[in-house]
Amino acid sequence: VQLQASGGGLVQAGRSLRLSCAASGVIFSTYDMGWYRQAPGKQRELVAAVTSGGSINYADSVKGRFTISRDNAKNTVYLQMNSLKPEDTAVYYCKAQHRRAWSSVYWGQGTQVTVSS
């Protein structure tokens, strides 16, 4: 199983980035997908998640600015990040968890997002 995250980079505050996470080795449509982030010295936190059935939730800090989506035909989950703020700076990770076998969890390698003020 492999989750390949991409799309991170250095941007100015107010700009946008789109992260992608491509999955292989799993039946993608049976997995709930999530984006998490971890800033230096902080705990990893949930940013956004989309279930296999399409239900979505967001952290309060990103509501209205970030949009998560999934394309089951491409085995990919996306995170569109608009109006980025310096406090969004972190390593972003994607996570896959089977919708029933909750112990079946996989993490991507992380992609760095840096937002300058």
Gap from first CA to last CA? 37 Å
Helicity, as a percent range: under 10%
How many helices? The count is: 0
> What would you call the quaternary organization?
single chain
| Integer average pLDDT | 97
| Percent range for β-strand residues | over 45%
What is the N-to-C order of secondary-structure elements (H for helix, E for strand)?
A: EEEEEEEEEEE
Briefly summarize what is shown.
With 117 residues, this protein is mainly β. It has strands at residues 2-6, 9-12, 17-24, 31-38, 45-50, 56-58, 66-71, 76-81, 90-98, 105-107, 111-116.
Label this structure with key terms.
mainly beta; globular; seven-stranded mixed sheet; 117 residues
Textual characterization of the structure:
The chain is mainly beta and 117 residues long. Helices cover 0% and strands 55% of the residues. The protein has no helices and eleven strands. Strands 2, 4, 5, 6, 9, 10 and 11 form a seven-stranded mixed β-sheet that branches. It has a four-stranded antiparallel β-sheet with strand order 1-3-8-7, with no helix packed on it. The model has no long low-confidence stretch (mean pLDDT 97).
